[in-house]
Amino acid sequence: AVEQTFSIIKPDATRRNLTGKINAKFEEAGLRIVAQKRIQMTKQQAEKFYEVHAARPFYGDLVSFMTSGPVVVQVLEGENAVARNREIMGATNPANADAGTIRKEFAESIEANSVHGSDSLENAKIEIAYFFAGTEIVG
Ligand code: CMP
């Protein structure tokens, strides 16, 4: 089925001017960018977005990292977009990511791993609504 998933191009990638190269990976793989904006996340936004990880030891560092520079938040649309995007991104830890994936090619570390993508359709809906109004998504 055609789905929408939520994506973030993280500060390590915007800092290295990789937005276009990462978007090319999505588009070459058949996903369409149906919403996109560059923002500076606030501490409160990052804390709430990653609330599910609040008890993890890396939570504080993750919030600092995600607010360390601009990010690009996006909605990607396509057939099986949630799973497809996870394939395009590769494993969370770039050391485990397959060749050709965004994280294998661009990520610096498990934290500075260049992109975030929703892990389920249910979370995609929640994450999209957290950053976008319906009128900002143009399919
Ligand atoms: P993301 O998909 O944005 O979701 C949570 C993020 O936490 C993850 O990508 C990583 O960038 C970051 N992170 C940092 N350390 C770890 C870790 N040890 N295990 C999993 N995720 C981590």
UniProtKB/TrEMBL annotation:
GO terms for cellular component: cytoplasm. Keywords: Kinase, Transferase. Pfam families: NDK. PROSITE patterns: NDPK, NDPK_LIKE. The keyword RNA-binding does not apply. GO terms for molecular function: ATP binding; metal ion binding; nucleoside diphosphate kinase activity. Gene3D superfamilies: Nucleoside diphosphate kinase-like domain. GO terms for biological process: CTP biosynthetic process; GTP biosynthetic process; UTP biosynthetic process. Signal peptide: none annotated. This is Nucleoside diphosphate kinase. It comes from Nitrospirillum amazonense.
